[in-house]
Amino acid sequence: MTATTPAVPARRPPARRLTLAAPARLLRLELRRNIAGWLLPLIVALFWLDGYHYAMGFPPFWGLRSPVLPDRAMVDFALFGAGASAWVGSRDVRRRTTDLLTVTAVPRWGRQFVTWAATTGWAMAAYLVCVAVLYWSTARQGAWGGPPLWPAAVGAAGVAAACALGFAAGVFFPSRFTAALATLAVFILATAIKGGGTSTYGLISPVAPQGSFRPDSGVFYHYLPDLSIDQVLLLAGLAAAALGALGVPAASGGRWLRRSAAALTAAGLVTAGTAIGLAGTARLEPYGVVIPALHDAASDRPIPYTPVCGQAAIPVCLHPAYQAYLPAVTAALRPLLSQVAGLPGAPVRVVQVAYLNPTEFATGGAPTIAGRPAVLRLPLGFAVLAQQTQTEFLQSRAAPVIMGSVIGGGTSGASPAQQAAEAGLLQAAGVPVAQLASMGSVYKPPAPGSPVYAAATRFAALPAAARHAWLLAHLAALRAGQITLEQLP
Amino acid sequence: MNVEIVDLTRRFGRTEAVAGVSLQAGPGVFGLLGPNGAGKTSLLRMLATVIQPSSGTLRLLGRDPGSYGPRREIRRRLGYLPQNLGYYPGFTVAEFVEYFALLKDMPPGRVPAAVAAAVERTGLGDKARAKLRTLSGGMLRRAGIAQAIVNEPELLLLDEPTAGLDPEQRVSFRAMLRNLGETATVIVSTHLVEDVGAACTKVALMNQGKILFYGTPTELTARADGTDAAGDAPLERGYSAVLAAARTGAGAWS
Predict the structure, then answer these.
(1) How many CB pairs (< 8 A) connect A and B?
(2) pLDDT tens across A113-169, in order?
(3) Distance of CA A426 to the CA centre of its chain
């Protein structure tokens, strides 16, 4: 019998702690004690109440929601970022640590860069989280295609630039009022640029109303990143110039470091100047802002797609990005199209077309009929996409075009019989003709009690088959203006 | 010699804060005494490379601080506690000391141990995680000393280090000074002569930007012999005697 010593379980060697490099450790300290960290809940709440709800008020299209980012980033994030950076930048003088810091070995420029990076890091992290939430929400709502990254990049560059400029202001003009003044300056700059219109200055600003994208960007045509690239160049240039300027004073470091800082400042200013110069060459094309030097011709090609179609007496085909709107569009057009389907001049198909300018998108645009056989080309604007007036709005736009293409005569030169036939068809379709004008339609209904109104009511009261048969037999004469009110059944 | 000064002056406008000081100091604790406005702080700030001399020669740790490269080397080996200690109220004691350790270019791997040692050495071990805004004046002073010694400096410059310390802390601080002075040059600017008597091997007495006396504390005490200089302690009487002689000699100081 032999005695054995019980096996002692081998102790795991203590885990080796990762030693961070000095800049990383400094950054960790600065991040932990940075005022921007305390401002985060306020900034995020502001974005939630302002930017997020504003963006989510648009239909779920990337081209509509993503341009909100650079605009609101400047107000919600850059404003506070600039203020916090100015506060941190003036910290050494306010806290009277200048002597203590002067005698340290790390160059002042390097130390300041770490402090700026920490402040910007917090603001940037908050911004990127908010971008992610907005994009995630939009994707969840079934937005077609992929999210455009350029608007987010412009916002990020705006945050970095505002923080750099604010920090430099704090360093060069250290006072407890600098932070408030820097915040105010960014606010004034942002609101002043909002009124900048189509000037170079107004165009290149991230808060410019012109924006980089057209409403149908990313749907019918590619996003044009030209203006976004130019904006990023400007903002990156400003950030580089501000950060470089910190390293120029004699106390910032050695000769080479100061020369590098001066070179960075010069490069930043040249970049910003180039961006402004490029913005001066910009032209507004139907699919976005084109800057020739930055433009990729491949972006001009339409994006191929397979339309989704519904049936409303004739096929109604939309871009798949608008698939969610197909039932509503079909339902709105069906009463109109069923009255004229099969008649000479009536459209045989409805296809969605891209908007060509933002104003048209906001007002709803106008459908047109073209081609043989006739095709109703229908843009779907912002107002059309608004849920509450969708049916009435679509009908107000489409009715005069559809009826006009069948009955003829146009909106001003129509004969009384043509007016009565058109009004009768609209009444039979159940379209509230009296409300059409209030919806902005070019259609002018006949006055109640007038002979045209009486004839229209009589025509609408006919059975649908009888009305259709009469139109088939007499449409050519009606279009030629040879039918009188009395001859209308 | 860690400190070599020849005919050093510093002017602020028309005021000559330091007027032609020459001095040499090796390892040991060196006391800089003098009344308010004597130029002690200006001299210390020049030694700390915070400000540049108006004229004269200054060599620290065998290097010329006038050039960037040597100045950076000096700063790596330097510890400095200014008269008015600035600090970041949101930092903890350990973070404050770590921040300066990193800025002094210490190897990152050595920093945690060095911070812990400096904090312990100044008696702030139990306050390492306390925010600076919560500390008393004396504790803040000790935190300032901790950041000054964290890099085990070869040249340690302390401006009024015992201001705000209670008697017990002052005693342990003097012991720490003696200990540091075994390997480094420690220059302590103070107007408290008992600190000098207890901790310093050499002492200089400044007045109106000039050094009036340079020697050992014993030699300073001896200056009171045969005079009716005022003071509660022998060193104080020596201090008063030197100043009184200077006033008489200059005739303008009152």
Answers:
(1) 81
(2) 999 999 999 999 999 999 999 999 999 988 888 888 888 999 999 999 999 999 999
(3) 37
Between chains, do A106 and B85 touch, taking CB under 8 Å as contact?
no
Contacts of B208 by beta carbon, 8 Å cutoff, 6+ apart: B19, B37, B38, B39, B250, B253
Crossing angle of the two packed helices A416-428 and A464-479, in degrees rounded to 10: 150
Domain range summary for chain B, segments of one domain joined by +: 86-152
- For residues A410, A413, A415 and A416, what is the CA-based torsion angle, rounded to 10 degrees? 90
Are A105 and B91 inside 8 Å of each other by CB? Answer: no
Q: Do A33 and B75 touch (CB under 8 A)?
A: no
ipTM reported for the complex, 2 dp: 0.89
Instruction: Encode pLDDT of A223-245 as tens digits.
Output: 888 989 999 999 999 999 999 99
- pLDDT, tens digit (0-9, with 9 covering 90-100), for B33-42: 998 889 999 9
Tell me which residue in A95, A98, A255 faces B87 most closely, judged by beta carbons.
Answer: A95
Which residues of A lie closer than 8 Å to B, measured between beta carbons? Answer: 19-22, 25-26, 29, 32-33, 91-92, 95-107, 111, 253-255
The SS3 assignment for B10 reads strand
**Whole-angstrom distance, CA of residue A405 vs CA of residue A410:** 8
Please give the helix or strand (H or E) that residue B240 lies within, else none.
Answer: helix B234-250
Closest CA to A98 of B180, B48, B2, B67: B48
Write out chain B residues lying below 8 Å of A33, CB-based.
88, 90-91, 95
Cα four-point dihedral sign B226, B231, B232, B234: negative
CB A83 within 8 A of CB A166: yes
